[in-house]
Amino acid sequence: MEKLKVDSMLEYKFLSDLKYSPDGENLAFKVSNADQDENDYNSNLWIYNIKEDSFYQLTSGKKDGGFTWLNPEEIIFTSKRKNKDDEKILPETEFYKISINGGEALHLKTIERAVGDFKVKDQGQIIFTAMKDLKERNEEELKEDKDYQILEEIPFWSNGKGFTDSYRNHLYSLDYETGEVKELVGGKNNLGNFVLLGNKIAFTMGCFEDKADLINNLYLYELDSGNLHQLTDRNWSISMLEFKDDNEIYFAANNFQAMGLNSNPELYKVGIENKNVNQLTEEMDKSLWTSVGNDCRLGGGQSFTVSDGELYFISTEGYNAYLNRLNAGQVERIIANEGTVDLFDIHEGQIAFVGFRDNQLQELYLYENGEERQVSSFNDQVLAEKMVSEPEHFTVETSDGVELDAWVIKPVGYQKGEKYPAVLEIHGGPKTVYGSIFFNEFQILANEGYAVIFSNPRGSDGQGNEFADIRGGYGTRDYQDLMEVTDAAIQGYDLIDPERLGVAGGSYGGYMTNWIVGQTDRFKAAVSQRSISNWVSMFATTDIGYFFVEDQAAGATPWNNVDELWDSSPLKYADRVSTPTLLIHSEEDYRCWLTEALQFFTALKYHGVESRLAIFKGENHELSRSGKPEHRIRRYQEMVDWFNKYLK
Hints:
It is built from twelve helices and 40 strands. The relative contact order is 0.09.
């Protein structure tokens, strides 16, 4: 057995985008892995033949992306295979077709757009969404404009996408036999998700000028006539949709009433002809996605679909992510084992899913007749050869009588009677959760000789809106919960040395790390990542700031209540900090912009605090989850070195 190290992730496989063939005999999915030579990720399509219980790699292009089944034997997919002209500014998407029975991929069409989602209507037509420049600048004009940026709306940029001013997501069709691309829905409209059934396309859409908001509604486009119909007209945000049949559409919508923009949605259906909207659930109070935190995912997949007229969806409850079915207005849990269902597909009662089980990395599972079984082994051998420590779950009753889920991971090689340094880890969101699943960062720390403490304080997902609602209270009850979890871990695990405690977190966890070091000196080292330090600057500089800050600060803005924003900003308390603090931030993090780390770093240095700022160029808010392999390894190393310096 060997230790799990900062570069062990180079051996991991990441699974995503799972789809049954139309006849149900095969499953196609994407497998990605780090390419150290290119400092990037390779991704290819794989096939699982269910009857023969066999796997094989279908494509070999290294950058093969999204796909859809054309028929039981052919797949259409996107890829980056051609040598791109480095001088070219306009994005390109290449479409290919391949047979699962062998042979080379056939190039269908290259279009000068960055395609988002796409679906095949028939043998010759692809429906897709793509970003459009409303200013209609061509390649030459974009080259002329490359040295300056004109901004006319907010948000003017987006994390992972860069400047998005004057860009909208539109709906298109591609006839790949003739090469004709046709815009179906455009203008200043911004499309979200879409689904296709026959000649009908249902999608979410909002329209904005100058300032975007979270409001969108449901629309239907008829391919044969070109008619566009608005099916809903309410002040809500629709996140998921699927055809129930030719006459009705299921969807999930948040009306913002329970706890603002992070309110859990309810399920609805709408009639295509009569436009009648019926609410199907009352106070379901579940988030409809896998919010269990993890740094070993790459890519997504389906989390909401209809099979035989019944709606299936993922929900996060407690610290697990389950698969559910809507049955006569009641939510029925289908896959209920501990761990996560990250994405899934269904064919004639058989369910395939990708998820995490038993402190292992992602694998493919089949669920049938009430039983699930693991069918892939992409990562089994990788972890079998590594030292991995099991998370130990415990509960903490807080001073106000609420029960919290918490865990301790013991150091690898732990010896009874010995004392070890410990790191309190704080998740992002704040509306996400930690669970018992494998978490690479925690295992690296355990292999370095640290106990790891983690928990789901107030503000976390999985326990309903009331538990998650900390609007106007950041740094109060959530902070107290974290301190009480730390106390309980020390009391329950005598291996933890209370004089050698560290704290770390990213995003909201970075905010809370900054907050903690300004409130207490019990932690001897801190690592704050992609953090917030100043709610006032956060409001006006980030891609979500102007609506997120106002919502989370219970209506406060820099003009109506600047004191509220400043009082809950860690920067205000920087003169109290004595904890050596490492700040890790990405240069292109537009979710929590670099200025947040720069301000806090400057304040710490000004007040004589031992501090260090690591800036990762070319990375964004997703550095820890999908950053370039070398950068992720360097990030791990920065953390380990910092804690080793001050806790050992």
